[in-house]
Amino acid sequence: MLRALLFILPLALMIYAFIDCLNTPEEEVKHLPKPVWAIVVLLFSVVGAVGWIVAGKERRPRTGRGAGTGGWVAPDDNPEFLKSLKDEKRDGVPDPDPRADEDPKKRERDEDTEN
Fold first, then answer.
1. How far is it, in rounded angstroms, from Cα 111 to Cα 115?
2. Most buried pick, 1, 10, 56, 64, via CB within 10 A?
3. pLDDT per residue as tens digits for the range 65-94
4. How many CA atoms lie within 13 A of 13 on its CB side?
């Protein structure tokens, strides 16, 4: 079993680094052109894969829970959304359709009887 791990782990590392190299946008690749990195990873196996992981790609530090990353933020965690709710309440802007919670079929029947 240990012999298999000595073969499988470097192979898995090389495959990971090669696929990561291919999927990385050209502007995030550092030091060498992307095709050269792919060849280095394939020819020099473990050394090339470790070289790619350590020095070949521009790595960005991770930030906590989407804050400041420009990613999606739930409305109750979004301070801009909460501020807009307070502004609406303060300005007294009514809801666009007060009957929005009603059943649509009932609304259609009411509109037909009005006409």
1. 7
2. 56
3. 544 556 676 777 778 888 888 777 777 655
4. 17
